[in-house]
Amino acid sequence: MSKNCWPRFRVRNNTDNNGYLDERDFACLALRATIIEGKGEFSFSRLQEYQHIMLGLWEEIAELADFNKELLQDGKITTDEFKQAVQQCCMGRRYEDFPQAMKMFIDSNFKMVDLNDDGVIGADEYRFNCVTKFAIDDIEVVDEAFNNLLSDDDRRRGGLTLSRYQELYAQFLGNPDDNCPAIYLFGPLSEFSL
């Protein structure tokens, strides 16, 4: 696709870097989300909730992504198949129209970034999220990306609320406009070759 967010979209769920996604990758994401949300503390009940979310997402995406109909044989999909499946279920759609497991995944991502649990992702939380994902040597680049992401209402609120995060996530996945603010949702991605 030309001129959209997808060339910069990188499948970070492939936890073992084998080029494929499988159920284990999503189970690892569930544990990661549990630990991040707990700020290092482990909660078995939260793990079970995240396992439900992540494995539900795996099942939905795997069903959509199994273009070669070999999933039942090998239990894995390529990262390209995963991207195509996400595009198929999200392109041009609003958050409300996404599959339930995708919405739960997005909401859980918001919780992981909202470190102080105040319902708003502020600049400090955005920075922390960016530097834990990318090698960044200039905080001004991150701050500029955060400012480009925000609307006037977001600025008045001091950052992104859950509903605004949901809206931007949907734009990131489905808006073909390379100038949409959502391209900054995960940081200054244009600064990195993904």
Layout of secondary structure:
Blueprint: E1 20-22, H1 23-37, H2 44-65, H3 71-74, E2 76-78, H4 79-90, H5 100-113, E3 120-121, H6 123-131, H7 139-149, H8 152-157, E4 160-161, H9 162-174
Antiparallel strand pairs: 1-2, 3-4
DSSP strand tally: 4
Rg: 16 Å
Instruction: Classify the helix fraction into a percent range.
Output: 40-55%
For the largest beta-sheet, the strand count, sense and barrel status come to: 2 strands, antiparallel
Q: What oligomeric state do the depicted chains represent?
A: single chain
Any overview of this molecule?
Keywords: Calcium. Residues 110-127 form the EF-hand domain. The relative contact order is 0.13. The two termini are 15 Å apart. The chain has 194 residues and is mainly α. It is built from nine helices and four strands. The chain has a two-stranded antiparallel ribbon. A two-stranded antiparallel ribbon has the order 3-4. Helix 2 (44-65) crosses helix 5 and helix 6 (123-131) packs across helix 7 (139-149). The chain is globular and about 50 Å long.
